[in-house]
Amino acid sequence: MDVKSSNRRSFLKNAAAGIAAGSFLRPAFSASGNSHSMRTKDLKEKPNILWVYLEDTNAWMSCYGDDTIKTPNIDKLAERGVRFNRAYMPAPVCSPTRSALITGMYQTSIAAHEHYSSFSSWRGKEVETWHPNHIGVRTLPEIFKAAGYYTFNEGKDHYNFVFSDEDLYDRKGGNGFKGAENGTEWTGRAEGQPFFGQIQLRGGKKGGSPKRVNPDEVTVPPYYPDHPIYRKEIAHHYDTILKMDEILGDIIRRLKEDGLYENTAVFFFSDHGMCLPRHKQFVYEGGIRVPLIAAGPGIPANKVRNDLVSGLDVSGATLELAGIEIPAHMHAKGLFADDFHREFVFSARDRCDYTIDRIRAVVGKRYKYIRNFMTDRPYLQPQYRDGHDYMKVLRRLHEEGRLNDVQDRFVCQHRPAEELYDLQEDPHETVNLVHSWKREHALALTQMRDALYRLILETDDKGRFPETDEALKAVVDRWGSEKTSCPEYNRIK
Hints:
single chain, alpha/beta, 4-stranded antiparallel beta sheet, 14 helices, 15 strands, globular
């Protein structure tokens, strides 16, 4: 048994005693969180639920109005169900987002907000120093297993807490669609048993995607320099989306061949935006606004929704469609409930790899508010992308004074404490309205400030507190002393 598993099992054993004594864990294991067992007859009537989970992908698809490429399989799924135009993930990087969605809770509430934390092994090797995070709540797969569902995950998990694959999944495989044969995907379940499964696709990380999009024909957002390297990266992202469209078609075709399509709710979405700076790891639209399509039994057909949706609500809808009550401790909501409404959605960026930061975002119907808590450092601190050609070009053009004001703002040394954008008039978020004299801007700023600080307190945002010495030592052990240059590391070096 691995370290992760043994630590989790010993914790759960101790937690059980605490629960019996009325410990703090009781709300997380409420009646609604535990009463999920169903009779065999009931199970046969339940829908299957499948997450097609992409990495690093923006909504540059034809059904979202992008005319650069055609994505017929994605478009057909959207026609069968609901396309969400304003879906936002709770973080702009994979492991916090994945930790949030698999628990239905903000990652900041369960101390899973620091990217690549609570990992006992790293890229196949055991690590000497790690700081285990025992969250004390059941994940969605565990809830579904208790309800009699077959659970599987083909690929990435990256949860920032202690867990065991065998507790969550009946089958755990590698990334990608395997063709649903020989026990992969849903083929290992008992006859008539419903499944809750995930197929992880490399999305924007799919380096081997055929080159089909001409870099000269793409549109470069105004916050990037119109340079051949940026055109190449943008074209490559379109190429990866074309490949994902093909794979989605393969998945749908196999569901149909196995007679499962009509009774399977499919959720198609990404964990965050593409790799370029200002998208991945940042809370601008390119980083947290993602494609989200849901289709299948219990879901309206051929519908487009423009209301605000959190990635957490994928988790809520997943439970909702299976007839499982959303536990009271979750922050997820039922996407298809009659009373579904979010006035705001929230996103958080904390440490990413070895780069320590703290940013929060509030998105409303028209405005977005960003709070930068670490104004002593620039946006582009030393980071994992520094060796990439697009970063080298960006920094060189900055040094040569060849970037315009919008492009240069993200590369310079100054970072404001607050940012406010009118997403209706300024969808690329280039004009900061924090110091605007207009009354409507001041009112939006005040309202969203208040919403953020209430959320921080009400959900117990753990980003208010520094990481422990053990957690920081684990980062230094993983990445090395040279890369861990943020001042927070000085106390443990």
